[in-house]
């Protein structure tokens, strides 16, 4: 299978081509993308037989998140909240992604993340697996901070000020909840989206 970026009119498109052996997988990916039609998912432009195999053309969604580099805490929270909202919509459509990670999240100039990587529809995955993957992604994006917790200011009878580390701690707690065992203890993607959005705006 070959993947390339080509121009279609004024916009770039991602093209996947494969011979007879790759055709079933490319066709299945095109079908899953059409089922998952959503502003937060890469757009499929064409999925059809071509040159003895199959061709899948998709709108270019941006750079993979794992290639973007470090992002500010508020942006990381906004990205995950948006992704979780998209995933919640997909779950309501009966679509489970099953492979959410930094390589399957694209970020364009607009800043909104889009999901890709719908190719392996044979993997048995449940909505709770997507939620855990979002939790792992949130941990990856906001973890590793070295903010030291200050001594409580009430000891000096000073007005309480916001500590930047509280937001990171709250987001990591939500990530832990998303990865909880057993999976029945995990929130839905919709609840996770709301919780992450609320935590980052409090």
Structural write-up:
There is one protein chain. The protein has 5 helices and 7 strands. It has helices spanning 23-35, 73-92, 127-142, 164-178, 189-201; strands spanning 2-8, 11-18, 44-50, 53-59, 63-64, 105-107, 113-115. The strands form 2 sheets. Strands 1-2-4-3 form a 4-stranded antiparallel sheet, with helices on one face. Strands 5-6-7 form a 3-stranded antiparallel sheet, with helices on one face. Strand 1 and strand 2 form a beta hairpin. The radius of gyration is 20 Å and the shape is globular.
Give a concise summary:
With 202 residues, this protein is α+β, with helices and mostly antiparallel strands. It contains 5 helices and 7 strands.
Relevant terms:
single chain; 202 residues; alpha+beta; 4-stranded antiparallel sheet; 3-stranded antiparallel sheet; 38% helix
Shape: globular
In the sheet with the most strands, the strands line up as 1-2-4-3
The poorly predicted ranges are none
Order of helices and strands: EEHEEEHEEHHH
Mean pLDDT: 88
Strand proportion, as a percent range, falls in 15-25%
Quantity of strands, as a count = 7
- Global Rg: 20 Å
The secondary structure category is: alpha+beta
Q: What gap, in angstroms, lies between the N and C termini?
A: 47 Å
Profile the largest sheet.
4 strands, antiparallel
Percent range of helical residues: 25-40%
């Amino acid at each position: 299978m070959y993947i390339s970026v080509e121009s279609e009119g004024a916009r770039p498109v991602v093209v996947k081509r494969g011979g007879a052996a790759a055709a079933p997988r490319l066709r299945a990916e095109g079908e899953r993308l059409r089922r998952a039609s959503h502003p937060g998912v890469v757009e499929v432009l064409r999925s059809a037989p071509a040159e003895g195999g199959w061709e899948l053309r998709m709108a270019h969604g941006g750079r993979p998140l794992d290639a973007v580099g470090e992002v500010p805490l508020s942006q990381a929270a906004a990205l995950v909240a948006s992704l979780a909202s998209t995933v919640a919509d997909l779950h309501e459509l009966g679509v489970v992604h099953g492979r959410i990670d930094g390589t399957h999240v694209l970020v364009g100039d607009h800043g909104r993340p889009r999901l890709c990587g719908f190719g392996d529809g044979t993997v048995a995955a449940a909505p709770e697996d997507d939620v855990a993957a979002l939790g792992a992604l949130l941990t990856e994006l906001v973890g590793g901070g070295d903010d030291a917790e200050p001594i409580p200011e009430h000891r000096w009878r000073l007005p309480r000020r916001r500590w930047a580390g509280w937001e990171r701690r709250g987001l990591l707690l939500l990530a832990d909840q998303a990865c909880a065992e057993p999976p029945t203890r995990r929130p839905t993607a919709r609840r996770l989206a709301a919780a992450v959005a609320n935590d980052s705006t409090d």
